[in-house]
Fold this sequence. Notes:
By secondary structure, this protein is α/β, with parallel strands linked by helices. It has helices spanning 2-14, 17-29, 34-54, 60-83, 104-115, 129-137, 154-165, 183-189, 198-208; strands at 91-97, 119-127, 142-146, 173-177, 193-194. It has a five-stranded parallel sheet with strand order 2-1-3-4-5, sandwiched between helices.
Amino acid sequence: MAGSIEQIRDYIIEGNKNGAVxxxxxxxxxxxxxxxxxxxxxxxxxxEVGARFERDEYFVPEMLISARAMQAGxxxxxxxxxxxxVQPLATVAIGTVKGDLHDIGKNLxxxxxxxxxxxxxxxxxxxxxxxxxxxxxxxxxxxAMSALLTTTMANMKNTVEALKAAGVRDxxxxxxxxxxxxQTYSDEIxxxxxxxxxxxxxxxxxxxxxx
Length: 211
Ligand code: B12
């Protein structure tokens, strides 16, 4: 049993997508629970991938390849997790702000958050502030915004203002990121946190969710 878990973990860390899917199927056939596969293999693997990134042993391409292997495994697991009533840590509504079409970093953050045990509602790119408001009304606990252009960063502030105006600011935590974004900017616009990369984003989200 421990062997299958170890194998899924290794395949994800190596970025072997087909191997990860086959190992998840094997683990399920052996009767290992979806919750155990999620916690002991998927989350554990993505935590290790994040640690390697922080030690400069992995870079964005390696992290993306591992995250894709994790997601392929998650596709098998997701329906079973829902069926067995496993609760995510929290729901994150993530999107690239209005006017901005860059989504590589946003997608990576999204995958790392899913790998850390969060449910993801991906709003895509060029996301209007009202769409974030709607997502919070529908139950998102965390709003995660990405911006890669100095000109679109202002829409992070506009989204915070829209959440306030709609009376839902206190129903969610707000985290922001993207190459031009800083902690100072996060403080300035009244977000709850900033992180510079996908691995620290997962840590920040856990902290914001109190997990
Ligand atoms: C790829 C790219 C594009 C692609 C985007 C493809 C796609 N699907 O995303 C295309 C070609 C479409 C593009 C278009 C443009 N681009 Co462009 N692009 C880039 C480039 C080369 C790489 C960005 C990237 O993907 N990086 C890799 C990812 C993994 O890193 P990341 O996005 O920074 O994300 C990490 C962190 O920032 C963080 N993070 C990201 N989001 C979030 C969110 C949260 C919540 C958290 C916590 C963390 C977090 O975690 C991520 C993972 O570690 C950058 C240059 C650069 N080196 O950044 C220019 C760049 C961002 N682009 C730029 C420009 C100017 C443009 C255009 C205006 C060009 C034009 N004249 O048409 C258009 C704008 C289109 C639009 N409206 O958005 C400028 C921005 C300048 C500025 N300061 O405003 C840059 C910096 C290039 C430059 N040096 O001039 N671009």
